[in-house]
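User: Second chain of the day. Same drill as before.
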Amino acid sequence: MDAKLTGKIINEKRKALGLTQKELAEKLNVSNRTVSKWETGDGFPDISILPELAECLDISIDELLTGIKPKPIVVEEAPKENTKKHRAKFITAEIIAFALAFAANAIGSITELKLFRMPPFYVFIEIYLLVLSVLLFVTAVIVFFTAFVKYKYESENKEKTVKYEIWAFSAFSLIMPVITVLRFLYYYIILR
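Assistant: Same format as last time:
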């Protein structure tokens, strides 16, 4: 610690604030001779008075002792990707999910329209196609809702259009499973 440097800083800051040595001394409960000694470098402020002196001069203790202003702490946020990029990823996943749901509905429709009340051999094919349809449907749901959750988390988006897309996807992808369930209910409960 350099007494002359600290004295120079005290002098400059005191004058910048428009204070006399006497006014600064009164604020610190010391004599104006003490303040004069500090400013000339003949004396050094007591360590117990440094916080109060720094506050009176509107500087930090580090700046008072070294003359170096502390750098402000800058908290850098992690760079977020562009919202358009998130939206594009979501739309891609949405298209894939709709394609899978469409394939599931198409395969389910084949079993409903072509193989209903067919000979026993074709019943096995119908079961395989229904299983494939269900697997495609489950995959579509997983792809869609995983992409949706990721999109909402990454972009913090509150768009209403996304809500409509969820309703549209849910309605579209549930067509075939609902028809299949109704057919089984009709075939096994009503016809038996």
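DSSP finds eight helices and no strands in the chain.

User: Great, on to the next one.
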